[in-house]
Amino acid sequence: MTLSPDQQAQLMAAIRQAERDTSGEIRVHLEEQCPDGDPVKRAIAVFKHLGMHQTKEQNGVLFYVAYGDRKFAVVGDTGIDAKVPAGFWDGTKSLMRQHFAANDLVTGLSLGVEQAGQQLKQYFPCAPDDVNELPDDISFG
Q: Which residues does the UniProt record annotate as the domain TPM (predicted)?
């Protein structure tokens, strides 16, 4: 399953919108198969590979999807994980799962990104000297 250019643009727009009022960083990574079968373990490896652990405030969030295996994970860095309410990521994943079940990957990801952006904005508001530390594009495995 590949995303059309319009779908990619829609997702990147959701990322830019979610990051607009926060110093937090959001990335989306898509691949067909989850190499070791464990989406959380794979998401953590991709998180490091993308350099997301190097953000100044440790407030990166990765949305990982292995669409062929129908597996996904949402991983937040230590800074954001320490601040969001217990069960927050589970609620975000439930919302996404509803759209994934209807084969609407883009809407599910966009809504998940939006929810992460709201939390990031609350706990990591944008500073006047904020710089976009990571690209807003989608990475593919």
A: 2-118
